[in-house]
Amino acid sequence: MRGYGQFCPVALGAEVFAERWTPLILRELLAGSHRFSELQRGLPGIPRALLTQRLGSLQRAGLVERRPTRAGRGFEYHLSPAGLSFSPVVEALGRWGYQWAAEQLRPDNLDAGLLMWFLRRRVQVDRLPAEQVTSSSSSAMPTSAASGSSCGGQRSTCAWPTPASTPTCT
Question: How would you class 156 by CB atoms within 10 Å of its CB: exposed for 0-12, middle for 13-18, buried for 19 or more?
Answer without folding.
Answer: middle
